[in-house]
Amino acid sequence: MHSWPEIYLPKLADRFDFPGLSLFNTETQKIEELEKKTLYRMYVCGITPYDATHLGHAATYLTFDLINRYLRATGARVDFVENITDIDDPLLERAARDGITWQELAQSQIDLFRGDMTDLRIIPPKNYIGVVEAMDLVVDAVEKLRQAGTTYLVDSDLYFTVRSDSEFGERSHLSQDEMLKIFAERGGDPTRIGKRDPLDALVWLSQREGEPGWPSPFGAGRPGWHIECCAIALHYLTPDAGDTYAIDIQGGGSDLIFPHHEMSATQSRAINGQRFARTYVHTGMIGLDGEKMSKSLGNLVFVSKLIQSGVSPVSIRWALMERAYGADLMWNDSLLAQAERDIQRLQLNLARMEVAPTDSVITAVIESLSHNLDTAGALNHIRAWMDATEAGATGGEAGELSRALDTLLGLAP
Ligand code: ZN
């Protein structure tokens, strides 16, 4: 699947130091500094292409874009892989409702998503992989689980034994009751008769009447959600066999902590014996005017609609950066209006001949980002610089600040 256009990141001058990047690791429940490396392998779970791209998506991909920008600004390489769950129940249901094929629906939403990511200046993944195009890999991964003796059949569907991994549950920190409840809410089937453990995960669904299927050694069918990401990540991020962990960063929204990321990690360990990700990073949920933003409430705010109504994509970035990435955010019109005013003011200040000193604000923005991506702190430093510039302070280089803010925060006008 082709990605979207690459983004040029101006290099910052060598005199700027980059402290190690610390991030909140869901597994350890601590803010931890990433090990200094020359190559980071980052996997971010992509969309199921039937409702692209709402603000919750934008907030998630913005967060990992900021991590990507920071690590690249330090001179490291970031191998970034993202998937598209382009075959799944919700896609089939929506396509049937709308009277189009699931392929047409997926294609239209993937195109929309690419356009939105381009507008939002999100660095594209090196490998943007659809499950359908990766079906051979996924079948291989399921076969490895089967050979490891971790699967069993319920009727003609194949399930993974979650308790085959002694570390099952360690990334999500939930009680058995909480796991059961959330599993049922997020696509799991804890009450299906014949399962050995209610939390066991479907890895291969045999082909149903009127639904698509792909050939496999366990019969025609399609994969469960979790094994897809595990298979794509393990193939495209080339785990280092000498490392305890297969990849460096697993990312996604906090609604993916369980069951999705727990299951992918557990299945990955069953395949290669390594722990999956060194750091699990999760982003908060976006609400609207005091309510949860959700498909069922019908109150999703779409990036493309905002842009069509005249909102600049950079204002959307700014508004989303006003919160800590891990916190939930209640979106409202005044937040966006304030962001638009801030962006206009920034552009006016960066266009001045004389501006307040810029080295100090660049250093302060880098410092803020290094502390668990404190974007709100970074924006406050930029506001203080605008105050000083408007008060007549001089001695800075507007062009250098503009380039640095673009590299670090994607704030090119
Ligand atoms: Zn995933």
Descriptive notes:
Helix content is 41%, strand content 17%. The chain has helices spanning 55-73, 89-98, 102-119, 135-147, 176-185, 225-236, 257-272, 303-308, 313-321, 333-350, 359-370, 375-390, 398-409; strands at residues 22-25, 30-33, 39-44, 77-84, 127-130, 151-154, 157-160, 201-206, 221-223, 245-253, 275-283, 286-288, 291-292, 329-331. The strands form four sheets. Strands 5-4-3-10-11 form a five-stranded parallel β-sheet. The two termini are 29 Å apart. The chain is an alpha/beta fold and 413 residues long. Strand 10 (245-253), helix 7 and strand 11 (275-283) form a beta-alpha-beta unit. Zinc ion binds at residues 45, 229, 260, 264.
List the main descriptive attributes of the protein structure presented here:
4-stranded antiparallel beta sheet, binds zinc ion, alpha/beta
Task: Tell me the layout of helices and strands.
Elements: E1 22-25, E2 30-33, E3 39-44, H1 55-73, E4 77-84, H2 89-98, H3 102-119, E5 127-130, H4 135-147, E6 151-154, E7 157-160, H5 176-185, E8 201-206, E9 221-223, H6 225-236, E10 245-253, H7 257-272, E11 275-283, E12 286-288, E13 291-292, H8 303-308, H9 313-321, E14 329-331, H10 333-350, H11 359-370, H12 375-390, H13 398-409
Parallel strand pairs: 3-4, 3-10, 4-5, 10-11, 12-14
Antiparallel strand pairs: 1-2, 6-7, 7-8, 8-9, 12-13
Helix pairs in contact: 2-3, 4-6, 6-7, 9-10, 10-12, 11-12, 11-13
Bound molecules: zinc ion.
